[in-house]
Design brief:
By secondary structure, this protein is an alpha/beta fold. The protein has eight helices and six strands.
């Protein structure tokens, strides 16, 4: 661990909304208690297009955003992302030369593509510790499929399940009533889980 250095958390958006979306702004603020958070837009989003760039372009943009956020300073790096952004972050960790994040935080990892294909190859190639934060109603990541994938992964990995949560980790009113929680309570529980995960993998600020 780099003693006395605040970790850099790069937060990548999902396929359908930019870094200025309410979801991204909210999570950028919450993660701000854990490190210095930078968000960015992939090229297609910056152009105002709804069609995501090809994966190699997304990876290059992600790598460029890391370099811009680091500004030449060496410090612990955490790659966090929503859906597509989390998947691209995994590709960066597994494939990009010279980039060694301390941890990966995946909010709503899209394990199943729109065509129904299982997208687990990059997860199986990872060695970087990874935390999955998943809603149990997320159709893009059925928990039974994720559990099978996790059992085959060589990277240290953990799972936080949002009861009644959708792809954006929003719980149903029924689930919140059953657990006696608010959505804010759920979000704060996620933040605490991330903090513990980062500390366990030496990716947090010194206490």
């Amino acid at each position: 661990m780099l003693s006395g250095v605040t970790p850099l958390i790069l937060l990548a958006h999902g396929a359908g909304a930019p870094s200025t979306s309410d979801w991204m702004v909210g999570w950028r603020e919450r993660l701000g208690s854990l490190g210095e958070v930078h968000a960015f837009d992939y090229p297609y989003m910056a152009r105002g297009s709804k069609r995501p760039d090809p994966l190699p372009t997304l990876i290059r943009a992600h790598v460029d955003a890391i370099a811009a956020a680091q500004g030449g300073q060496a410090r612990p790096l955490v790659l966090a992302g929503k859906s597509m952004g989390s998947r691209v972050g995994c590709h960066v960790a597994a494939e990009a030369e010279g980039i060694r994040p301390r941890a990966l935080i995946c909010f709503g990892y899209p394990l199943v593509g729109q065509n129904g294909k299982l997208r687990d190859a990059v997860l199986l190639a990872l060695s970087t510790p990874i935390l999955f934060v998943q809603g149990d109603r997320d159709p893009l990541c059925p928990l039974e499929l994720l559990e099978r994938t996790r059992a085959k992964m060589r990277a240290p990995n953990e799972l936080f399940v949002v009861e009644g949560g959708d792809h954006s980790l929003l719980s149903t009113k029924t689930a919140l009533k059953r657990t006696g929680q608010t959505q804010r309570d759920v979000d704060q529980a996620i933040v605490r889980t991330i903090a513990h995960f980062l500390s366990a993998h030496q990716a947090s600020s010194p206490g």
